[in-house]
Amino acid sequence: MVTAVEAKLRRYYELKQQIKQLSDELAELRDELIGYCMEHEVRQLEAGGCKLTLVVQQRREYDDAKLLSALPEPELWRMLSRADTAKVASLVKLNVLTEEQIKDTYLLKDVQLLQVVKK
């Protein structure tokens, strides 16, 4: 006899597997759509009753060693513990760090964002 907990546990596991499969399929479709847009040099397209918009965003990827050496006070590193983009941005916003101090501590990485909405 299957208990209610066993049935819920089994269903939970099945749903988690479906989520993983859907995530994998979404990632594959995303890559294919971005590839299509890049190949055809388009940023927007409409098809199948949907509108696709490709947005390029720049993200900073910090080098821990360079960032540590750029900090005015080593105690700030304890606040960061590692190069966390949001924490670094907060310290710049609070004027604890300046853009000038950290200008050589990161690389800008282009990230393709895919937005699809129903027309």
Descriptive labels:
single chain; 119 residues; alpha+beta; 3-stranded antiparallel β-sheet; 3 strands; 25% strand; flat
Question: In terms of topology, how is this protein built?
Answer:
Layout: H1 4-39, E1 44-47, E2 50-62, H2 64-70, H3 75-80, H4 85-93, H5 99-102, E3 106-118
Antiparallel strand pairs: 1-2, 2-3
Architecture overview:
The structure is a single chain. A three-stranded antiparallel beta sheet has the order 1-2-3. The chain has helices spanning 4-39, 64-70, 75-80, 85-93, 99-102, and strands spanning 44-47, 50-62, 106-118. The chain is of the alpha+beta class. The radius of gyration is 22 Å and the shape is flat. The longest helix has 36 residues, at 4-39. The mean pLDDT is 87. It contains five helices and three strands. 52% of the residues lie in helices and 25% in strands. A hairpin with a 2-residue loop joins strand 1 and strand 2.
Brief summary:
With 119 residues, the chain is α+β, with helices and mostly antiparallel strands. It has helices at residues 4-39, 64-70, 75-80, 85-93, 99-102; strands at residues 44-47, 50-62, 106-118.
Q: Please provide the ordered H/E string of secondary-structure elements.
A: HEEHHHHE
Radius of gyration: 22 Å
Strand order of the largest sheet: 1-2-3
Number of strands: 3
pLDDT average, as an integer?
A: 87
Helix content: 40-55%
Are there runs of 5+ residues with pLDDT below 50, and where? Answer: none
Describe the largest sheet: 3 strands, antiparallel
